[in-house]
């Protein structure tokens, strides 16, 4: 089998852009198709840790990500009144760069798209695949704009509701985990340099994470029986209800939740694929392969680690051998993050079965500091 030269990436999100950058840097010819026409991402923030910074640094954009975000000291677990129960300080994985970072989704998108543009990688917006056929030597793809192409490898980086996954594994679908997450950006109190997680309330947890010099975001993850839909005008009141009973910085900051249009609510749906995440010359990465809940703040890092490892394994070798090596390095790590994230949510919903969330979080953070 010949080595891989020409690659199609379906999905221009976190993992898709990262893998396009990594493969281009290793000399492969990469094209990206992205379904959305405006390529915008919603305004809230994400929490990331040392392995995210390290993976982006391997793509040459660690510095830019750090500058686009806000570095803080680590995670603290707090009681409902805000008193600190335990500090889990971040451990840097790259000399000179911090570990724990909060950044807005648009800021991360800007860092990735700027690099893609700088490298001149072809991105077609408002386009996706209509069908593909893998004949063993290559994949013929027909696109929704009427064009077609032939590729040595197709990467499905099209997120939690992946159409590529559906085409190859129609029985694998995201499952509602029983919880939903509420998010809202508020002013950051001066001097707040930790992301705090308040535990002890039945059904979930809440907290905040610094995003910039001036802003942080509040998150509240709670059991939402029956996976309800909420009327848009009720979202601020609904979020505030979930934050009732909290004291400390969280209780104070929650007063700023006033505009229902700025509340971002998402039911949590997860889909962790068994190995392998590929069939022939079509492979899934990121959420398409292993979407989890945000309890460990690892979704973006896992997608970027997938991208870095796939790019490393893909250089100068045939697709089959590269994909086996990719799975060997990625499956257990992504599975551990996914199942542990879901476990934390289960414990929140069923406290009678609960283990120790602080110990589990600390153990996974340390594990992920190890090289990919
Ligand atoms: C509520 C919530 C909170 C989260 N918080 C965090 C956090 O704090 N920290 C963290 O690290 N992660 C967090 N995550 C997870 C993180 O957002 C994802 O894991 C990460 O974005 C995965 O990257 P991805 O590239 O796989 O998917 P995405 O970033 O979702 O990108 C998929 C891309 O594919 C495009 N697309 C979709 N379908 C098609 C198609 N058929 N054809 C072409 N393009 C398509 C989409 O438009 C999108 O651009 C959170 C997720 C949720 C839902």
UniProtKB/TrEMBL annotation:
Keywords: Monooxygenase, Oxidoreductase. Signal peptide: none annotated. The keyword Repeat does not apply. Gene3D superfamilies: FAD/NAD(P)-binding domain (3.50.50.60). The keyword Plastid does not apply. One of its GO terms (molecular function) is monooxygenase activity. Pfam families: FAD_binding_3 (PF01494). Residues 6-330 form the FAD-binding domain. This is FAD-dependent monooxygenase. It comes from Novosphingobium organovorum. The lineage of its organism: Bacteria, Pseudomonadati, Pseudomonadota, Alphaproteobacteria, Sphingomonadales.
